[in-house]
Amino acid sequence: MKSHGEPVHALFEKAFAGERRSIGQLLSVIEQGGDQADSVTEMAHTFTGKAHIVGITGAPGSGKSTLTGQLTRISSEAGWKTAVLAVDPSSPLTGGAILGDRIRMDDLAGEETFIRSMATRGHSGGLALAVPAAIRLFDAVGYDPVIIETVGVGQVEVDVAGTADTTVVVVTPGWGDAVQANKAGLLEVADIFVVNKADRPGAKDARRDLELMLDLGHISGLNDQNEFRPPIIMTNALHGEGTNEVWKNIKEHGEHLHSSGQLEQRQSNRIHLEITNRLNRVIGEVASSVLETKAGRELLKSVASREISPSEAAKQLAAKVLK
Ligand SMILES: Nc1nc2c(ncn2[C@@H]2O[C@H](COP(=O)(O)OP(=O)(O)OP(=O)(O)O)[C@@H](O)[C@H]2O)c(=O)[nH]1
Ligand SMILES: [Mg+2]
Known about the structure:
By secondary structure, this protein is an alpha/beta fold. It folds into three domains: 1-46, no CATH class; 48-261, Rossmann fold (3-Layer(aba) Sandwich), CATH 3.40.50.300; 278-322, no CATH class. It is built from 14 helices and nine strands. The protein has helices spanning 8-16, 20-32, 34-45, 64-77, 92-108, 127-140, 160-163, 175-178, 183-189, 203-220, 243-260, 262-291, 294-304, 310-322; strands spanning 2-3, 6-7, 53-58, 83-88, 114-119, 146-151, 166-171, 192-195, 232-234. The longest helix is centred in the C-terminal third of the chain and has 30 residues, at 262-291. The two termini are 32 Å apart. Residues 64-65, 101, 149 line the site of magnesium ion. Magnesium ion is lined by residues 64-65, 101, 149.
């Protein structure tokens, strides 16, 4: 099992000892997926469970990267060994912006900080496996917190809310009109709301909208299981205004998770989600390969000649796979 000429376990040992280059190489292994990526995950798993996983999510252009850059600076100045994973949506439009973001973030970041972006290009479906694996690696080699930036709820295959301990939802003035349909979804995932670009008109309205939504959610019981009412923080991420407050609330939420026992619940939800994704992948692969067998091709013909229906064919194949 080799990567870049070096066995994965040797890279892992060096990464564990703090060698940044090896961490970067292991992240590339993870991005490529397959058996080698799985063996990184296996090695890392035992050492995980220490990092605070923080998700930053929101619409494209809402200021997630700018905010993440500020939080990274604050966190590393406070002595935390911070890792950032920017999950790049497949859209080539935003793809270009990521590099700029990374440069900006790198400017802010200290020596102890590790920043990496991960792209969807070229391996569809791979991110759902690669992101948790990357988080696990960062956690195992001693990064805490691990901050993940990704675009909004339901827009990419990586569900930050399922991945993070603390989810920060970034909105901007006027957001309400844009995401009308998804307000309930936002309410469900947000542990902390940030109204960014508070220097712009409409910021107060955005805040009032959120307060109202939280009140309504409370009445309807939508956020009952989450007795932590998400705070709403106004920021101008560009100038670092309000960002200390965001950091403080992230830490407080982390402590709340610990003391309330919800942390274990979230970790186990995360594992559940990850196993589901992997199971879907494994079974999906078997399912596609069974279609290529002689029996599979014959069934295909029977469907084409209208002897049996596609759903019947699928059921017969599933019976073969699961036998
Ligand atoms: N006026 C104002 N502009 C901001 C603020 N925060 C970020 N911006 C600007 O908004 C633009 C988008 O910021 P990004 O941080 O790249 O936003 P993003 O959410 O990461 O964008 P994507 O990753 O492309 O989805 C940039 O031009 C920022 O300089 C703010 O608080 N006020
Ligand atoms: Mg960004």
